[in-house]
Model the fold of this input.
Amino acid sequence: MELTLLGTGAPNGLPRPGCPCAACAVAVGADARGATAVLIDETLLLDLTPGAAFAAARAGHTLGGVRQVLLSHPHDGPPVEVPAGLPQPGRVPDGRELTLLTGHRVRALAMDAPGTGYAVTGPDGQRVLYLPPGGSPAGLEEGAVESYDMVLADVVRRPDALARLRAVGAVGPTTDVVAVHIDHDVPPGAELRRRLAAAGARAVPDGSTLVVGVYEDVPDVPRRTLVLGGARSGKSVEAERRLEAFPEVLYVATGGSRNGDTEWASRVSAHRERRPGSWRTAETCDLVPLLKDDGAPLLIDCLSLWLTDSMDAVGAWDDAEWADGGERELRARVSELTEAVRGARRTVVAVSNEVGSGIVPATASGRRYRDELGRLNAAFAGECEQVVLVVAGQAMVLRG
Done:
């Protein structure tokens, strides 16, 4: 099958008409996107948008051979004019299957938001899944579907849809995931490509023709990532965002509950509410066994609190204990941790504070902690495929 993406943007396009935001301001050239519409083998059109015939012509195609036009979501605003010779658009009821004379089969999937998803099987047996904007399949069961060759989905706004598809095997290692319905949620260009790559997805310009089943060199999701940043820099949000598109994540909270500390409890609650409901949480500083085990992706938040716990355990705050074996024991703990990271087979995203660029602490214990955290961050980063520094909510890739 061949798919031509006549548009890849949100229903209002990108930039949005009259929108003054920064993302819309830089959405020019190849980063400008019309509303998403997909032409399959010049026979099937998914979503009719204004200017679809001109978009097809610009891409070197025609709508003259289209035999079916299907809508995936409610179209707001004035009715879209149907070009002469094109069939009237319609929607397939959820669960029903439509067979075209060309040999294409289209099955309608129920969504958890207004709209319909379409699973298209071509005459050669290749399978494509197209999801509406802001939609995720409802009622999926593990093992109920085979892996799709290509998925077109609203990856930026609904990464959980990709996680659901991965959980049931509908998206596998060879599935080509292409982002569509792209809006102004993320600045276009490098930042969009970086976020999609972290989810195992990619974006293409309007007018691109994709051949289903052809290998695409999408960057592999890093197995080990360290996210650094200062206080309230957005480092935890960046770490969580990297795993939103994956199911059954184990969130490792190293800070504990700190009984009686209401301010800390409020912080923990805010973090918990932000995480997907399918994630599990473990409150522990015993990281080595988790890193050595196989299993779901691991999100560790954060290494700086792990270090505090370790320094407490070795008596690092007392100069005499520190000199009498405490320093040596801490070095051994850090070495054991980094060796476990080196051998980890599961996906790991770890968060840590970057404190070396601020004011020199006034106390010896503060300076000791700063120095040891710098050493831990450097050792941990040395075992990671990707290292990211977050400043003012903006992620800068230092490695990978």
